[in-house]
Amino acid sequence: MEEDILYHFSLSTKTHNLPEMFGDTKFVCVGGSANRMKAFARFMHRQLNLPGLPEDIKDICEGTDRYCMYKVGPVLSISHGMGVPSISIMLHELIKLLYHAQCCDVVLFRLGTSGGVGLAPGTVVVTDKAVDYAFRPQFEQVVLGKVVTRSTELDEGVANELLKCSDELQTFPTVIGNTMCTDDFYEGQGRLDGALCSFSHEEKLEYLRKAYEAGVRNIEMESAVFAAMCRACGVKAAVVCVALLNRFEGDQVTSSHDVLVEYQQRPQVLVSHFIKKRLGLIP
Ligand SMILES: O=P(O)(O)O[C@H]1O[C@H](CO)[C@@H](O)[C@H]1O
Ligand SMILES: O=c1cc[nH]c(=O)[nH]1
C-alpha cells in the first residue's frame, strides 16, 4: 500500500515516521482499561529510571478515544477495551505498526483481570493455553463466511521465565494454567448474577468443575484471539491475568476498590521484573 492508515490509532505511514517513533520497541503490554495502561506506563517509567516526569508521558493516540498508547523507552503500553472484537481490531493495527516500524524480537503481553477457577483471589495466572467454551485450544474466526480455526498456544519459554520471575519476587502466588476466553462476562462465564439467568447453581458448579479438570484456572475475554493472532503472525506472546475472585465461591466482585487496585498491579509488577531482567537492569 502506498499509505497505511491505522485508523483506530489515528496514525498513518504517511503522516507519522513509524520507524523513528517505534523502531526501538521490544516489549508491548496491552490491557483492557485506558487508565490502567496509563498507570502502567508511568510505573514502567519509574522502574526504568527514565528521564523526565512519569506524569508528562503523552498519549500517542490522542487523536482518537478508541485506544490509548504510551511509549516509555522500549516499552509500549496500549489499552484494548473489552472483548474479542475490540482487542482484535487493536492487534491488527498494532502488528502492522510493528511491521512498518521495522521492530524485531518484540514480546507482547496481555496484562488483565479474570475470574479464578479454584484459586484464591489475588493469584496471578500465566496462561499456558487459551481455550474456548469447550476447553479446546483454538480460536474460530469467520472469514468470507467460513470458519477459520487457529491455534491458541502461547510461548512456553516466556511463560516459564515469568514463573521464575514470580519465584524471585515472592510477593504473590502465581500459577501456570489454561485460560478460558468467553464472549460474555455473565451467562458466558456461568454467572448467576446477570440480567438473564438460564441455569441452576448446580449446573454452574458442574461446568466450572469440568473447566478445572481441563486445566482451566481463570476466565477472561480476550486471550484466545490474542494468542491466535500473535501465533499466526510469529510474535512471541504471554497472557498474565490476576484472579479477582474464586468463581466456585461466587459471581460478584466484592473486594474493595483499594484491594482491586493492588490486585491489578500484580501482573504489572511481574512483567516489569521480566522486562528489567531482559534489559539486564537486574541480575
Ligand atoms: O481486565 P481486562 O484486561 O479488561 O480483562 C478482563 O476484564 C473485562 C471484564 O471485566 C474483560 O475485558 C476481561 O477479559
Ligand atoms: O470474573 C471475571 C473477572 C474479570 N474479568 C472477567 O472476564 N471475568
Automatic annotation (TrEMBL):
Keyword terms, alphabetized: Disulfide bond, Glycosyltransferase, Transferase
Pathway field: Pyrimidine metabolism; UMP biosynthesis via salvage pathway; uracil from uridine (phosphorylase route): step 1/1
Biological function: Catalyzes the reversible phosphorylytic cleavage of uridine to uracil and ribose-1-phosphate which can then be utilized as carbon and energy sources or in the rescue of pyrimidine bases for nucleotide synthesis. Shows broad substrate specificity and can also accept deoxyuridine and other analogous compounds.
Gene Ontology molecular function: uridine phosphorylase activity
The protein's enzyme class: transferase
Disulphide-bridged cysteine pairs: C61-C68
Keyword Repressor listed: no
Catalytic activity, as annotated: uridine + phosphate = alpha-D-ribose 1-phosphate + uracil
Organism: Fundulus heteroclitus
UniProt domain Nucleoside phosphorylase: residue ranges: 26-276
Positions of phosphate binding: R66, R110, L111, G112, T113
The enzyme's E.C. designation: 2.4.2.3
Classification via InterPro entries: Nucleoside_phosphorylase_CS, Nucleoside_phosphorylase_d, Nucleoside_phosphorylase_sf, Uridine_phosphorylase_euk
Binding site for substrate: Q189, R191
Listed name of the protein: Uridine phosphorylase
Family from the record: Belongs to the PNP/UDP phosphorylase family.
